[in-house]
Amino acid sequence: MTESSNETGIMPTEEAFYFVVAEENEDERVDKLLGMLMDSLSRSYIQKLLSQGGIRVNGEGVKASYRVKPEDHIEVKLPPASIPNIAAENIPLDILYEDKDVIVVNKPKGMVVHPAPGHYSGTLVNALLFHCKENLSGINGVLRPGIVHRIDRDTTGSVIACKNDRAHSRIAEQLKEHSIVRRYHAIVHGVLKDEEGVIHTLIGRHPSQRKKMAVRMDGGKDAITHYRVLRHMDKYTYVECALETGRTHQIRVHMAHIGHPLLGDTVYGPKSSAFSLEGQTLHAKILGFRHPTTEEYIETDAPLPEYFLKLLDKL
Q: Residue 90 belongs to a domain with what CATH number?
């Protein structure tokens, strides 16, 4: 699959994306395929675009159920998007730590961190606006109030948000200098031969699939992941991955790079997901940081989600 144009985001004008279907994607539903390639758009939003003629295959309008063929040319036109008023929503939060400066929440699977096209409600930001009222930092603008970092929609676990600009600046500085402790738990394909190791590469945008990241020989940013085995299983391994840097999709890209993609990751691993999983088995378990006011070291531990525990028992 190849693609051109810019990344999906909040746009003042119409923006177009172009894809050419590869052989490996033959017979995939067009809405499902675009959902994987343009992961900031929801499946329902893509289906709406299809029904409105905003997505064309070989110059023709198609239904969401259309099965793509190799060399099909897909054009996606996103309409002009104005920045909406982001509503506070009474969505329950699993709060791991909170005070007047910061809040750490255990994000569930399927929740987007901040609003984007197709995801203007039900996000972590909508929930934080209700819970924190006016007490969120404004450094990242109206779409991302309080948000210092993000994790993927299907990744669960710890996310820190800041309630004022001073706290935001100090936490962001810790992220920049790589002093925040971030340890993730994951289940990967295959049996790792080493009990622990370090993966050190450059990571940048995939040269042809712009929604994916990739290990690059040049043109990427330094990326370091430390891993250790927690449990060996028959065909899989339960691991802990500690981030020294925090590049987009870093753990997913690095584990795939060494031949052990995350279970459930249909972007960087097998195209079909075993055990009817929805997305990668990745959980942001430990988050440690210096408090922006007191300088005290704070560490939170997000319990593994139920689906993850059941999967470990099954495996």
A: 3.30.2350.10
Residue tagged active-site, from 152, 194, 234, 265:
152
Are the beta carbons of 215 and 201 closer than 8 angstroms? yes
Span 5-48, pLDDT tens digits: 333 333 344 678 888 998 888 999 999 899 888 766 778 889 98
Alpha-carbon span 216 to 210, nearest angstrom: 13
CA-CA distance, 189 to 265, in Å (whole number)? Answer: 10
Nearest to 294 by CA among 101, 162, 97, 95: 101
> Per-residue pLDDT tens for 200-216?
999 998 887 877 999 99
Shared domain for 277 and 188, answered yes or no, is yes
Domain assignment present for 46: yes
End of a domain among 177, 194, 227? 177
**Secondary element (H or E) of residue 60:** strand 60-61
Q: Assess if residue 288 is contained within a domain.
A: no
**For this structure, is 152 an active site residue?**
yes
- In degrees, rounded to 5, the angle at the alpha carbon of residue 116 between the alpha carbons of residues 12 and 208 is 85
**Predicted structure pTM score:** 0.76
Question: What is the total count of domains within the chain?
Answer: 3
- Whole domain around residue 158: which residue ranges? 83-177
Instruction: Show the tokens assigned to 258.
Output: 């060494």
Q: Is 299 helix (H, G, I), strand (E, B) or coil?
A: strand
Please tell me whether residues 272 and 188 are part of one structural domain: yes
Residue at which a domain ends, from 177, 206, 225: 177
**Is 287 within the bounds of a domain?**
no
Confidence of residue 155 (pLDDT cuts 50, 70, 90): very high
- Average pLDDT, whole number, for the chain? 90
- From the centroid of its chain, how far is CA 110? 10
Over residues 273-278, the mean pLDDT reads 86
